[in-house]
User: Which sequence fits this backbone?
Protein backbone atom coordinates (compact mmCIF):
# COMPACT_ATOMS: atom_id res chain seq x y z
CA UNK A 1 0.00 0.00 0.00
CA UNK A 2 2.79 2.29 1.06
CA UNK A 3 4.82 1.47 -2.02
CA UNK A 4 1.86 2.29 -4.17
CA UNK A 5 1.46 5.69 -2.53
CA UNK A 6 5.12 6.31 -3.10
CA UNK A 7 4.80 5.37 -6.76
CA UNK A 8 1.79 7.61 -7.07
CA UNK A 9 3.64 10.53 -5.54
CA UNK A 10 6.60 9.84 -7.79
CA UNK A 11 4.35 9.91 -10.80
CA UNK A 12 2.84 13.23 -9.77
CA UNK A 13 6.30 14.66 -9.18
CA UNK A 14 7.39 13.38 -12.58
CA UNK A 15 4.54 15.24 -14.09
CA UNK A 16 4.66 18.45 -12.09
CA UNK A 17 8.38 19.17 -11.95
CA UNK A 18 8.87 19.35 -15.74
CA UNK A 19 5.92 21.72 -15.94
CA UNK A 20 7.45 23.99 -13.33
CA UNK A 21 10.83 23.77 -15.00
CA UNK A 22 9.24 24.47 -18.35
CA UNK A 23 7.58 27.61 -17.10
CA UNK A 24 10.56 29.08 -15.30
CA UNK A 25 13.33 28.15 -17.72
CA UNK A 26 12.33 30.46 -20.52
CA UNK A 27 10.84 33.88 -20.02
CA UNK A 28 8.84 33.66 -23.24
CA UNK A 29 7.12 30.51 -22.02
CA UNK A 30 6.22 32.18 -18.77
CA UNK A 31 4.86 35.12 -20.73
CA UNK A 32 2.82 32.82 -22.96
CA UNK A 33 1.46 30.96 -19.96
CA UNK A 34 0.51 34.25 -18.24
CA UNK A 35 -1.33 35.47 -21.34
CA UNK A 36 -3.18 32.16 -21.51
CA UNK A 37 -4.17 32.33 -17.86
CA UNK A 38 -5.43 35.86 -18.47
CA UNK A 39 -7.48 34.70 -21.44
CA UNK A 40 -8.87 31.79 -19.43
CA UNK A 41 -9.82 34.18 -16.66
CA UNK A 42 -11.56 36.48 -19.15
CA UNK A 43 -13.37 33.54 -20.71
CA UNK A 44 -14.45 32.22 -17.30
CA UNK A 45 -15.68 35.50 -15.85
CA UNK A 46 -16.97 36.79 -19.18
CA UNK A 47 -19.52 39.59 -18.92
CA UNK A 48 -18.80 40.13 -15.22
CA UNK A 49 -15.56 42.04 -15.81
CA UNK A 50 -16.64 43.84 -18.99
CA UNK A 51 -17.36 47.55 -18.46
CA UNK A 52 -20.49 47.44 -20.67
CA UNK A 53 -22.86 44.90 -22.11
CA UNK A 54 -21.31 43.58 -25.33
CA UNK A 55 -24.47 43.93 -27.39
CA UNK A 56 -26.11 47.10 -26.08
CA UNK A 57 -26.50 49.70 -28.82
CA UNK A 58 -25.78 53.31 -27.96
CA UNK A 59 -26.02 55.34 -31.14
CA UNK A 60 -25.08 58.63 -29.47
CA UNK A 61 -21.66 57.10 -28.70
CA UNK A 62 -21.03 55.64 -32.15
CA UNK A 63 -17.54 55.53 -33.74
CA UNK A 64 -15.74 57.04 -30.76
CA UNK A 65 -11.99 56.59 -30.60
CA UNK A 66 -10.35 55.10 -27.51
CA UNK A 67 -11.15 57.38 -24.54
CA UNK A 68 -11.83 57.30 -20.82
CA UNK A 69 -15.37 55.97 -20.95
CA UNK A 70 -14.68 53.55 -23.78
CA UNK A 71 -11.08 52.39 -23.34
CA UNK A 72 -10.85 50.83 -26.80
CA UNK A 73 -13.49 52.98 -28.51
CA UNK A 74 -16.89 52.10 -29.92
CA UNK A 75 -18.19 50.67 -33.19
CA UNK A 76 -20.79 51.96 -35.65
CA UNK A 77 -23.61 51.00 -33.31
CA UNK A 78 -21.93 52.61 -30.30
CA UNK A 79 -21.12 49.21 -28.80
CA UNK A 80 -18.08 49.13 -26.53
CA UNK A 81 -15.12 47.48 -28.35
CA UNK A 82 -13.43 46.30 -25.13
CA UNK A 83 -16.59 44.61 -23.87
CA UNK A 84 -17.16 42.94 -27.23
CA UNK A 85 -13.54 41.78 -27.48
CA UNK A 86 -13.75 40.33 -23.96
CA UNK A 87 -17.00 38.63 -24.84
CA UNK A 88 -15.39 37.20 -28.00
CA UNK A 89 -12.69 35.54 -25.89
CA UNK A 90 -15.06 32.94 -24.50
CA UNK A 91 -16.36 31.83 -27.89
CA UNK A 92 -12.84 31.80 -29.35
CA UNK A 93 -11.42 29.56 -26.63
CA UNK A 94 -14.52 27.38 -26.69
CA UNK A 95 -14.20 26.87 -30.45
CA UNK A 96 -10.44 26.31 -30.27
CA UNK A 97 -10.91 23.70 -27.58
CA UNK A 98 -13.79 21.94 -29.34
CA UNK A 99 -11.94 21.84 -32.66
CA UNK A 100 -8.80 20.42 -31.05
CA UNK A 101 -10.94 17.84 -29.24
CA UNK A 102 -12.71 16.97 -32.49
CA UNK A 103 -9.38 16.51 -34.29
CA UNK A 104 -8.10 14.41 -31.39
CA UNK A 105 -11.15 12.15 -31.13
CA UNK A 106 -10.99 11.39 -34.86
CA UNK A 107 -7.23 11.49 -35.24
CA UNK A 108 -6.05 9.40 -32.32
CA UNK A 109 -7.86 6.10 -33.05
CA UNK A 110 -7.47 6.37 -36.84
CA UNK A 111 -3.79 7.24 -36.61
CA UNK A 112 -3.09 4.45 -34.11
CA UNK A 113 -4.87 1.81 -36.18
CA UNK A 114 -3.11 2.99 -39.36
CA UNK A 115 0.25 2.82 -37.66
CA UNK A 116 -0.39 -0.59 -36.15
CA UNK A 117 -2.04 -2.40 -39.06
CA UNK A 118 -0.03 -2.01 -42.25
CA UNK A 119 -2.72 -2.82 -44.79
CA UNK A 120 -5.34 -0.65 -43.14
CA UNK A 121 -2.78 2.13 -42.86
CA UNK A 122 -1.75 1.87 -46.48
CA UNK A 123 -5.27 2.55 -47.72
CA UNK A 124 -6.47 5.04 -45.12
CA UNK A 125 -3.30 7.14 -45.08
CA UNK A 126 -3.67 7.70 -48.83
CA UNK A 127 -7.07 9.26 -48.16
CA UNK A 128 -5.72 11.26 -45.26
CA UNK A 129 -2.93 12.64 -47.45
CA UNK A 130 -5.44 13.50 -50.16
CA UNK A 131 -7.54 15.37 -47.60
CA UNK A 132 -4.46 17.44 -46.83
CA UNK A 133 -4.16 18.45 -50.48
CA UNK A 134 -7.09 20.83 -49.94
CA UNK A 135 -5.81 24.13 -48.53
CA UNK A 136 -7.24 24.67 -45.05
CA UNK A 137 -9.56 27.58 -45.70
CA UNK A 138 -10.83 26.19 -49.03
CA UNK A 139 -11.84 22.94 -47.32
CA UNK A 140 -13.38 24.75 -44.35
CA UNK A 141 -15.35 27.11 -46.62
CA UNK A 142 -16.59 24.25 -48.79
CA UNK A 143 -17.63 22.25 -45.73
CA UNK A 144 -19.48 25.27 -44.37
CA UNK A 145 -21.36 25.49 -47.68
CA UNK A 146 -22.14 21.77 -47.58
CA UNK A 147 -23.24 21.77 -43.94
CA UNK A 148 -25.63 24.63 -44.61
CA UNK A 149 -26.32 27.41 -42.14
CA UNK A 150 -23.64 29.31 -40.22
CA UNK A 151 -23.48 27.93 -36.71
CA UNK A 152 -21.14 26.98 -33.90
CA UNK A 153 -21.49 23.23 -34.40
CA UNK A 154 -20.94 23.53 -38.15
CA UNK A 155 -17.80 25.58 -37.61
CA UNK A 156 -16.47 22.92 -35.23
CA UNK A 157 -17.10 20.19 -37.80
CA UNK A 158 -15.78 22.18 -40.78
CA UNK A 159 -12.55 23.33 -39.16
CA UNK A 160 -12.20 20.08 -37.21
CA UNK A 161 -12.28 18.11 -40.46
CA UNK A 162 -9.41 20.26 -41.70
CA UNK A 163 -7.21 19.51 -38.68
CA UNK A 164 -8.16 15.88 -38.03
CA UNK A 165 -6.06 14.57 -40.96
CA UNK A 166 -3.04 16.45 -39.62
CA UNK A 167 -3.57 14.85 -36.22
CA UNK A 168 -3.86 11.43 -37.90
CA UNK A 169 -0.49 12.04 -39.59
CA UNK A 170 1.26 12.89 -36.33
CA UNK A 171 -0.27 9.93 -34.45
CA UNK A 172 0.47 7.62 -37.40
CA UNK A 173 4.14 8.47 -37.69
CA UNK A 174 4.63 8.30 -33.92
CA UNK A 175 2.88 4.90 -33.73
CA UNK A 176 5.09 3.60 -36.54
CA UNK A 177 8.23 4.37 -34.59
CA UNK A 178 6.79 3.30 -31.22
CA UNK A 179 5.84 -0.16 -32.37
CA UNK A 180 9.45 -0.93 -33.26
CA UNK A 181 10.38 -0.72 -29.57
CA UNK A 182 11.52 -3.86 -27.78
CA UNK A 183 8.84 -3.57 -25.11
CA UNK A 184 6.15 -3.81 -27.75
CA UNK A 185 7.84 -6.90 -29.13
CA UNK A 186 8.00 -8.29 -25.61
CA UNK A 187 4.30 -7.59 -25.06
CA UNK A 188 3.52 -9.40 -28.27
CA UNK A 189 5.73 -12.31 -27.35
CA UNK A 190 3.86 -12.57 -24.04
CA UNK A 191 0.70 -13.02 -26.07
CA UNK A 192 -0.86 -9.66 -25.28
CA UNK A 193 -3.82 -8.82 -27.48
CA UNK A 194 -3.21 -6.03 -30.07
CA UNK A 195 -6.06 -3.99 -28.60
CA UNK A 196 -4.39 -4.14 -25.19
CA UNK A 197 -1.00 -3.21 -26.64
CA UNK A 198 -2.55 -0.23 -28.37
CA UNK A 199 -4.29 1.01 -25.26
CA UNK A 200 -1.74 0.11 -22.55
CA UNK A 201 1.51 0.80 -24.34
CA UNK A 202 1.11 2.81 -27.51
CA UNK A 203 -1.53 5.35 -26.49
CA UNK A 204 0.32 6.29 -23.28
CA UNK A 205 3.49 7.02 -25.22
CA UNK A 206 1.60 9.04 -27.80
CA UNK A 207 0.71 11.58 -25.14
CA UNK A 208 3.61 13.97 -25.85
CA UNK A 209 3.26 14.33 -29.63
CA UNK A 210 -0.52 14.52 -29.30
CA UNK A 211 -0.43 17.28 -26.69
CA UNK A 212 2.01 19.27 -28.81
CA UNK A 213 -0.04 18.83 -31.97
CA UNK A 214 -3.25 19.74 -30.11
CA UNK A 215 -1.65 23.00 -28.96
CA UNK A 216 -0.73 23.91 -32.52
CA UNK A 217 -4.18 22.84 -33.73
CA UNK A 218 -5.65 25.22 -31.19
CA UNK A 219 -3.55 28.13 -32.48
CA UNK A 220 -4.26 27.46 -36.16
CA UNK A 221 -7.93 26.74 -35.67
CA UNK A 222 -8.76 29.96 -33.81
CA UNK A 223 -7.02 31.84 -36.62
CA UNK A 224 -9.08 29.95 -39.16
CA UNK A 225 -12.32 30.47 -37.26
CA UNK A 226 -11.56 34.20 -37.21
CA UNK A 227 -11.02 34.10 -40.98
CA UNK A 228 -14.36 32.34 -41.48
CA UNK A 229 -16.13 34.86 -39.26
CA UNK A 230 -14.35 37.68 -41.07
CA UNK A 231 -15.68 36.33 -44.38
CA UNK A 232 -19.18 36.11 -42.90
CA UNK A 233 -19.49 32.32 -43.15
CA UNK A 234 -18.61 31.28 -39.59
CA UNK A 235 -20.74 31.62 -36.51
CA UNK A 236 -23.89 33.78 -36.77
CA UNK A 237 -23.13 37.53 -36.74
CA UNK A 238 -25.22 38.22 -33.62
CA UNK A 239 -22.59 36.44 -31.49
CA UNK A 240 -19.68 38.81 -30.82
CA UNK A 241 -16.48 37.27 -32.21
CA UNK A 242 -13.10 38.78 -33.07
CA UNK A 243 -13.36 37.86 -36.75
CA UNK A 244 -16.93 39.12 -36.94
CA UNK A 245 -15.97 42.44 -35.31
CA UNK A 246 -13.21 42.93 -37.88
CA UNK A 247 -15.68 42.16 -40.65
CA UNK A 248 -18.17 44.75 -39.38
CA UNK A 249 -15.43 47.35 -39.02
CA UNK A 250 -14.38 47.19 -42.66
CA UNK A 251 -16.84 49.82 -43.83
CA UNK A 252 -15.46 52.28 -41.29
CA UNK A 253 -11.80 51.38 -41.65
CA UNK A 254 -10.58 54.90 -42.46
CA UNK A 255 -12.83 56.64 -39.91
CA UNK A 256 -12.54 54.15 -37.08
CA UNK A 257 -9.57 51.77 -37.52
CA UNK A 258 -9.75 50.77 -33.83
CA UNK A 259 -12.78 48.58 -34.56
CA UNK A 260 -10.40 46.29 -36.46
CA UNK A 261 -7.14 47.00 -34.65
CA UNK A 262 -8.08 45.69 -31.20
CA UNK A 263 -9.88 42.44 -32.02
CA UNK A 264 -6.90 41.65 -34.27
CA UNK A 265 -4.50 42.26 -31.41
CA UNK A 266 -6.54 40.00 -29.12
CA UNK A 267 -6.43 37.29 -31.77
CA UNK A 268 -2.70 37.71 -32.41
CA UNK A 269 -1.98 37.52 -28.66
CA UNK A 270 -3.99 34.33 -28.29
CA UNK A 271 -2.36 32.69 -31.32
CA UNK A 272 1.10 33.82 -30.23
CA UNK A 273 0.73 32.40 -26.74
CA UNK A 274 -0.46 29.04 -28.04
CA UNK A 275 2.39 28.93 -30.57
CA UNK A 276 4.93 29.74 -27.86
CA UNK A 277 3.46 27.13 -25.57
CA UNK A 278 3.47 24.57 -28.38
CA UNK A 279 7.15 25.30 -29.13
CA UNK A 280 8.09 25.02 -25.48
CA UNK A 281 6.14 21.79 -24.94
CA UNK A 282 7.64 20.28 -28.07
CA UNK A 283 11.21 21.10 -27.05
CA UNK A 284 10.58 19.85 -23.55
CA UNK A 285 8.52 16.72 -24.19
CA UNK A 286 10.16 15.47 -27.33
CA UNK A 287 12.95 17.40 -29.02
CA UNK A 288 12.92 14.96 -31.93
CA UNK A 289 9.55 16.37 -32.99
CA UNK A 290 11.26 19.58 -34.05
CA UNK A 291 11.83 17.95 -37.42
CA UNK A 292 8.28 16.75 -37.91
CA UNK A 293 6.31 19.78 -36.85
CA UNK B 1 16.27 8.89 -61.89
CA UNK B 2 13.74 7.47 -64.34
CA UNK B 3 12.32 4.93 -61.91
CA UNK B 4 12.13 7.67 -59.29
CA UNK B 5 10.07 9.88 -61.61
CA UNK B 6 7.87 6.93 -62.55
CA UNK B 7 7.18 6.01 -58.92
CA UNK B 8 6.38 9.58 -57.93
CA UNK B 9 4.29 10.01 -61.09
CA UNK B 10 2.10 7.04 -60.15
CA UNK B 11 1.76 8.44 -56.65
CA UNK B 12 0.64 11.74 -58.12
CA UNK B 13 -2.03 10.04 -60.23
CA UNK B 14 -3.34 8.12 -57.22
CA UNK B 15 -3.55 11.34 -55.21
CA UNK B 16 -5.38 13.09 -58.06
CA UNK B 17 -7.87 10.23 -58.20
CA UNK B 18 -8.44 10.42 -54.45
CA UNK B 19 -8.83 14.21 -54.49
CA UNK B 20 -11.55 13.89 -57.12
CA UNK B 21 -13.16 11.05 -55.16
CA UNK B 22 -13.23 13.10 -51.97
CA UNK B 23 -14.79 16.05 -53.78
CA UNK B 24 -17.41 13.71 -55.26
CA UNK B 25 -18.23 12.23 -51.84
CA UNK B 26 -18.47 15.68 -50.25
CA UNK B 27 -20.79 16.94 -52.95
CA UNK B 28 -23.11 13.97 -52.34
CA UNK B 29 -23.60 15.37 -48.84
CA UNK B 30 -25.05 18.65 -50.12
CA UNK B 31 -28.62 18.86 -48.84
CA UNK B 32 -31.39 19.00 -51.44
CA UNK B 33 -31.59 18.07 -55.10
CA UNK B 34 -29.16 20.03 -57.31
CA UNK B 35 -31.63 20.01 -60.19
CA UNK B 36 -34.32 21.58 -58.01
CA UNK B 37 -31.85 24.16 -56.74
CA UNK B 38 -30.81 25.02 -60.30
CA UNK B 39 -34.35 25.52 -61.56
CA UNK B 40 -35.57 27.53 -58.60
CA UNK B 41 -38.84 27.45 -56.68
CA UNK B 42 -41.15 27.77 -59.68
CA UNK B 43 -40.07 24.59 -61.45
CA UNK B 44 -42.55 21.80 -62.06
CA UNK B 45 -41.65 18.23 -60.99
CA UNK B 46 -41.50 17.26 -64.70
CA UNK B 47 -38.90 19.94 -65.45
CA UNK B 48 -36.81 18.84 -62.49
CA UNK B 49 -37.05 15.21 -63.57
CA UNK B 50 -36.00 16.19 -67.10
CA UNK B 51 -32.95 18.02 -65.84
CA UNK B 52 -32.05 15.14 -63.52
CA UNK B 53 -32.09 12.76 -66.49
CA UNK B 54 -30.04 15.12 -68.66
CA UNK B 55 -27.45 15.47 -65.88
CA UNK B 56 -27.45 11.73 -65.31
CA UNK B 57 -28.57 12.11 -61.70
CA UNK B 58 -31.04 9.23 -62.17
CA UNK B 59 -28.19 6.80 -62.79
CA UNK B 60 -26.43 4.62 -60.21
CA UNK B 61 -23.79 6.27 -58.05
CA UNK B 62 -20.88 4.44 -59.67
CA UNK B 63 -21.95 5.49 -63.17
CA UNK B 64 -22.27 9.06 -61.94
CA UNK B 65 -18.79 8.83 -60.45
CA UNK B 66 -17.39 7.52 -63.72
CA UNK B 67 -18.86 10.46 -65.63
CA UNK B 68 -17.70 12.89 -62.95
CA UNK B 69 -14.20 11.52 -63.25
CA UNK B 70 -13.96 11.50 -67.05
CA UNK B 71 -15.51 14.96 -67.23
CA UNK B 72 -12.76 16.31 -65.01
CA UNK B 73 -10.09 15.17 -67.44
CA UNK B 74 -12.04 16.61 -70.35
CA UNK B 75 -11.98 19.95 -68.55
CA UNK B 76 -15.73 19.87 -67.95
CA UNK B 77 -16.34 20.93 -64.37
CA UNK B 78 -20.03 21.65 -64.80
CA UNK B 79 -21.86 24.92 -64.99
CA UNK B 80 -22.27 27.65 -62.41
CA UNK B 81 -25.79 27.83 -60.93
CA UNK B 82 -25.51 31.57 -60.67
CA UNK B 83 -23.48 32.79 -63.66
CA UNK B 84 -24.83 30.11 -66.04
CA UNK B 85 -21.34 29.69 -67.49
CA UNK B 86 -18.93 26.74 -67.46
CA UNK B 87 -17.08 26.58 -64.13
CA UNK B 88 -13.66 26.21 -65.74
CA UNK B 89 -14.30 29.36 -67.78
CA UNK B 90 -15.16 31.37 -64.65
CA UNK B 91 -12.11 30.07 -62.81
CA UNK B 92 -9.98 30.88 -65.87
CA UNK B 93 -11.16 34.48 -65.86
CA UNK B 94 -10.12 34.82 -62.24
CA UNK B 95 -6.83 32.94 -62.50
CA UNK B 96 -4.62 35.83 -63.63
CA UNK B 97 -5.13 37.88 -60.46
CA UNK B 98 -4.59 34.92 -58.15
CA UNK B 99 -1.50 33.66 -59.96
CA UNK B 100 0.12 37.11 -59.98
CA UNK B 101 -0.75 37.64 -56.32
CA UNK B 102 0.63 34.20 -55.45
CA UNK B 103 3.89 34.74 -57.32
CA UNK B 104 4.44 38.17 -55.81
CA UNK B 105 3.69 36.83 -52.33
CA UNK B 106 6.12 33.97 -52.96
CA UNK B 107 8.75 36.54 -53.87
CA UNK B 108 8.16 38.20 -50.48
CA UNK B 109 8.32 34.81 -48.72
CA UNK B 110 11.60 33.79 -50.35
CA UNK B 111 13.07 37.29 -50.42
CA UNK B 112 12.56 37.94 -46.71
CA UNK B 113 12.44 34.43 -45.30
CA UNK B 114 15.59 32.78 -46.64
CA UNK B 115 18.14 35.62 -46.32
CA UNK B 116 16.65 36.55 -42.96
CA UNK B 117 16.91 33.02 -41.62
CA UNK B 118 20.40 32.46 -43.01
CA UNK B 119 21.80 35.73 -41.66
CA UNK B 120 20.17 35.01 -38.33
CA UNK B 121 21.85 31.58 -38.21
CA UNK B 122 25.29 33.04 -38.93
CA UNK B 123 25.22 34.96 -35.65
CA UNK B 124 23.09 32.81 -33.37
CA UNK B 125 21.86 34.38 -30.12
CA UNK B 126 23.12 37.84 -31.05
CA UNK B 127 20.72 40.74 -30.54
CA UNK B 128 20.05 40.80 -34.30
CA UNK B 129 19.14 37.13 -34.17
CA UNK B 130 16.84 37.60 -31.20
CA UNK B 131 15.08 40.59 -32.72
CA UNK B 132 14.68 38.64 -35.90
CA UNK B 133 13.23 35.63 -34.08
CA UNK B 134 10.78 37.86 -32.30
CA UNK B 135 9.62 39.28 -35.64
CA UNK B 136 9.35 35.80 -37.10
CA UNK B 137 7.26 34.60 -34.17
CA UNK B 138 5.00 37.64 -34.27
CA UNK B 139 4.69 37.26 -38.04
CA UNK B 140 3.52 33.68 -37.65
CA UNK B 141 0.84 34.72 -35.16
CA UNK B 142 -0.64 37.67 -37.03
CA UNK B 143 -3.65 36.94 -39.21
CA UNK B 144 -2.72 38.01 -42.77
CA UNK B 145 -6.07 39.71 -43.33
CA UNK B 146 -5.58 41.86 -40.25
CA UNK B 147 -2.10 42.87 -41.40
CA UNK B 148 -3.62 43.64 -44.80
CA UNK B 149 -6.33 45.85 -43.31
CA UNK B 150 -3.80 47.72 -41.18
CA UNK B 151 -1.42 48.27 -44.12
CA UNK B 152 -4.37 49.44 -46.15
CA UNK B 153 -5.35 51.99 -43.50
CA UNK B 154 -1.87 53.39 -43.08
CA UNK B 155 -0.12 53.09 -46.45
CA UNK B 156 -3.11 53.47 -48.77
CA UNK B 157 -5.50 55.43 -46.55
CA UNK B 158 -3.25 57.87 -44.67
CA UNK B 159 -0.10 58.10 -46.80
CA UNK B 160 -1.65 57.46 -50.22
CA UNK B 161 1.49 55.68 -51.40
CA UNK B 162 -0.27 52.72 -52.97
CA UNK B 163 -3.80 51.99 -54.18
CA UNK B 164 -5.99 50.43 -51.50
CA UNK B 165 -8.02 47.94 -53.49
CA UNK B 166 -9.15 46.54 -56.82
CA UNK B 167 -7.19 45.18 -59.75
CA UNK B 168 -7.71 45.22 -63.51
CA UNK B 169 -6.26 42.57 -65.77
CA UNK B 170 -2.80 43.20 -67.19
CA UNK B 171 -3.42 40.73 -69.99
CA UNK B 172 -6.48 42.68 -71.12
CA UNK B 173 -5.18 46.24 -70.68
CA UNK B 174 -1.46 45.69 -71.20
CA UNK B 175 -0.81 48.10 -68.34
CA UNK B 176 1.99 46.76 -66.12
CA UNK B 177 1.35 49.61 -63.69
CA UNK B 178 -1.62 47.61 -62.39
CA UNK B 179 0.87 45.49 -60.49
CA UNK B 180 1.02 48.34 -57.97
CA UNK B 181 -2.41 47.24 -56.77
CA UNK B 182 -0.96 43.89 -55.79
CA UNK B 183 1.98 45.15 -53.71
CA UNK B 184 0.10 45.59 -50.45
CA UNK B 185 -1.87 42.35 -50.74
CA UNK B 186 1.25 40.40 -51.70
CA UNK B 187 3.21 41.84 -48.81
CA UNK B 188 0.56 41.12 -46.19
CA UNK B 189 0.12 37.61 -47.54
CA UNK B 190 3.83 36.92 -47.93
CA UNK B 191 5.07 38.39 -44.66
CA UNK B 192 3.10 35.95 -42.54
CA UNK B 193 4.48 32.99 -44.48
CA UNK B 194 8.00 34.42 -44.62
CA UNK B 195 8.10 34.04 -40.85
CA UNK B 196 7.73 30.28 -41.10
CA UNK B 197 10.32 29.95 -43.85
CA UNK B 198 12.75 32.12 -41.88
CA UNK B 199 12.47 29.93 -38.79
CA UNK B 200 13.12 26.80 -40.83
CA UNK B 201 15.97 28.39 -42.76
CA UNK B 202 17.57 29.42 -39.48
CA UNK B 203 17.34 26.06 -37.74
CA UNK B 204 18.40 24.08 -40.78
CA UNK B 205 21.40 26.38 -41.37
CA UNK B 206 22.35 26.04 -37.70
CA UNK B 207 22.29 22.24 -38.07
CA UNK B 208 24.41 22.25 -41.20
CA UNK B 209 26.97 24.78 -39.92
CA UNK B 210 27.94 22.31 -37.20
CA UNK B 211 28.72 19.53 -39.67
CA UNK B 212 32.24 18.24 -40.12
CA UNK B 213 32.43 19.10 -43.78
CA UNK B 214 31.92 22.77 -42.94
CA UNK B 215 34.86 22.64 -40.56
CA UNK B 216 36.86 20.89 -43.29
CA UNK B 217 35.91 23.52 -45.85
CA UNK B 218 37.01 26.27 -43.48
CA UNK B 219 40.18 24.40 -42.55
CA UNK B 220 41.25 24.08 -46.15
CA UNK B 221 41.09 27.86 -46.36
CA UNK B 222 37.92 28.32 -48.39
CA UNK B 223 36.52 31.84 -48.31
CA UNK B 224 33.72 32.12 -45.73
CA UNK B 225 31.27 33.26 -48.39
CA UNK B 226 31.97 30.14 -50.43
CA UNK B 227 31.53 27.98 -47.34
CA UNK B 228 28.14 29.51 -46.66
CA UNK B 229 26.79 29.58 -50.18
CA UNK B 230 28.30 26.45 -51.74
CA UNK B 231 28.55 24.09 -48.79
CA UNK B 232 26.09 25.15 -46.14
CA UNK B 233 23.18 26.64 -48.03
CA UNK B 234 23.00 23.82 -50.54
CA UNK B 235 22.77 21.23 -47.82
CA UNK B 236 20.35 23.29 -45.79
CA UNK B 237 18.13 23.81 -48.79
CA UNK B 238 16.06 20.61 -48.52
CA UNK B 239 14.13 21.51 -45.36
CA UNK B 240 13.84 25.07 -46.64
CA UNK B 241 12.41 23.80 -49.94
CA UNK B 242 9.91 21.68 -48.03
CA UNK B 243 8.60 24.66 -46.14
CA UNK B 244 8.50 26.81 -49.26
CA UNK B 245 6.45 24.13 -50.99
CA UNK B 246 4.17 23.94 -47.95
CA UNK B 247 3.60 27.65 -48.26
CA UNK B 248 1.71 26.99 -51.48
CA UNK B 249 -1.27 25.67 -49.51
CA UNK B 250 -0.94 28.38 -46.94
CA UNK B 251 -0.64 31.08 -49.62
CA UNK B 252 -3.81 29.79 -51.27
CA UNK B 253 -5.61 29.84 -47.93
CA UNK B 254 -4.33 33.30 -47.15
CA UNK B 255 -5.18 34.52 -50.64
CA UNK B 256 -8.83 33.65 -50.12
CA UNK B 257 -9.08 36.18 -47.32
CA UNK B 258 -6.55 38.67 -48.73
CA UNK B 259 -8.36 38.89 -52.07
CA UNK B 260 -11.52 39.53 -50.12
CA UNK B 261 -9.89 42.32 -48.08
CA UNK B 262 -8.42 44.11 -51.09
CA UNK B 263 -11.41 43.46 -53.37
CA UNK B 264 -9.27 41.58 -55.90
CA UNK B 265 -11.12 39.66 -58.62
CA UNK B 266 -9.33 36.34 -58.01
CA UNK B 267 -10.25 32.71 -57.40
CA UNK B 268 -10.21 33.30 -53.63
CA UNK B 269 -12.91 35.92 -53.69
CA UNK B 270 -14.79 33.72 -56.18
CA UNK B 271 -15.01 30.83 -53.72
CA UNK B 272 -16.23 33.12 -50.93
CA UNK B 273 -18.95 34.54 -53.18
CA UNK B 274 -19.88 31.03 -54.29
CA UNK B 275 -20.13 29.81 -50.70
CA UNK B 276 -22.40 32.73 -49.79
CA UNK B 277 -24.59 32.01 -52.86
CA UNK B 278 -24.41 28.22 -52.42
CA UNK B 279 -23.08 27.88 -55.97
CA UNK B 280 -21.95 24.26 -55.46
CA UNK B 281 -20.55 23.52 -58.96
CA UNK B 282 -18.14 26.47 -58.65
CA UNK B 283 -17.15 25.43 -55.11
CA UNK B 284 -16.34 21.87 -56.17
CA UNK B 285 -14.55 23.12 -59.29
CA UNK B 286 -12.25 25.34 -57.23
CA UNK B 287 -11.68 22.56 -54.68
CA UNK B 288 -10.56 20.16 -57.40
CA UNK B 289 -8.43 22.61 -59.36
CA UNK B 290 -6.60 23.85 -56.26
CA UNK B 291 -6.06 20.39 -54.78
CA UNK B 292 -4.81 18.91 -58.05
CA UNK B 293 -2.48 21.89 -58.43
CA UNK B 294 -1.19 21.15 -54.94
CA UNK B 295 -0.55 17.51 -55.86
CA UNK B 296 1.31 18.58 -59.00
CA UNK B 297 3.42 21.10 -57.10
CA UNK B 298 4.33 18.42 -54.56
CA UNK B 299 5.41 16.18 -57.42
CA UNK B 300 7.62 18.94 -58.83
CA UNK B 301 9.08 19.57 -55.37
CA UNK B 302 9.96 15.88 -55.08
CA UNK B 303 11.78 16.02 -58.40
CA UNK B 304 13.65 19.13 -57.29
CA UNK B 305 14.71 17.34 -54.09
CA UNK B 306 16.07 14.50 -56.13
CA UNK B 307 18.14 16.84 -58.23
CA UNK B 308 19.41 18.73 -55.16
CA UNK B 309 20.23 15.61 -53.21
CA UNK B 310 21.04 12.50 -55.28
CA UNK B 311 20.60 10.22 -52.24
CA UNK B 312 16.84 10.76 -52.33
CA UNK B 313 16.51 9.04 -55.70
CA UNK B 314 17.54 5.69 -54.28
CA UNK B 315 15.36 5.57 -51.21
Assistant:
Amino acid sequence: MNGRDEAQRERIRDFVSPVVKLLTKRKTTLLAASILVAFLFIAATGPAIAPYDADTLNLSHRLQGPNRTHLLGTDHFGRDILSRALSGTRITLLLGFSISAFALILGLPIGMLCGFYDKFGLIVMRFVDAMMAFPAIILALSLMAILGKPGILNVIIAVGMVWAPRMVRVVYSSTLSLRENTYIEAARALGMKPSRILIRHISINLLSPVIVQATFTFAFSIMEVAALNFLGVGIPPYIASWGGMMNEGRTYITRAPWIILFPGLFLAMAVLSFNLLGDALRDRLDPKLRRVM
Amino acid sequence: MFSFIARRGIGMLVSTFLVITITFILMQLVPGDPAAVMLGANATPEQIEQLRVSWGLDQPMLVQFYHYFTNFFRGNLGESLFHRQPVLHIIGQRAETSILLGLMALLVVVGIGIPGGVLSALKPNSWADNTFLLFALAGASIPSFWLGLMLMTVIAGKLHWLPSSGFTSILATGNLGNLKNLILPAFSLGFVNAALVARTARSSMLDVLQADYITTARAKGLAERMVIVKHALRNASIPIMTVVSFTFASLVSGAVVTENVFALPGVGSLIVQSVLKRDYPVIQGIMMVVAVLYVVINFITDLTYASLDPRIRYQ
